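Usage

Read records sequentially. Each one opens with the input sequence:
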Amino acid sequence: MPLRLETLSTQRLVIRGFRPGDEADRQLLINEAFDSHESLDDARRWVDWTFESDNFHDLMAQPGYGDYAVVMRDTGALVGAIGLVPTMIPWGVFPEFRPTNTPAHSFTTPEYGLFWAVRTHARGRGYATEAAKAFIQKYVCGVLNAARAVAMTEFENKKSQRVMEKLGMRLYRNPQPDPFWFQVVGVLDNPELAL
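and closes with the structure output:
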């Protein structure tokens, strides 16, 4: 059974793999979302690599790790990205995940990590939540049958934390100063675990 994500649709959006022709949109998205300076050549190499890696994920029976384009259903305009990355979580830094009076530790376990980004002009319209909800329900829990999904962000990124809350994630704050990207962690268990 292929574990690659095929096209997903919501009321307003389509989630599909990045493909040749998406380079300029990918460049704009990354530069806006992360205040970076990705070149068009960098975006082209990334899209080529992503497009080809999908085939190898299938051959190795591996999940479709990577970013997927989020496009408007009615116009096809690329407004964002949603993705899945292998994420190493040091659960022992959180007091909630270790026995009382046990010191913090940094032993890790691999988890399915979520990623999302939305173009500046498309923010504040619920696209990140809509795409992430469909991605989790239909792909992460549906196809991959994952026990849980996680997402991480900085303390200051209140918008991303709000998306996590709308998805029903439990939020945990890392009491340790590092790493900077691991300050707030959202955890969403597969609803099938509650049955």
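Summary fields computed downstream for this record:
- The chain is about 30% helix and 25% strand.
- The radius of gyration is 17 Å.
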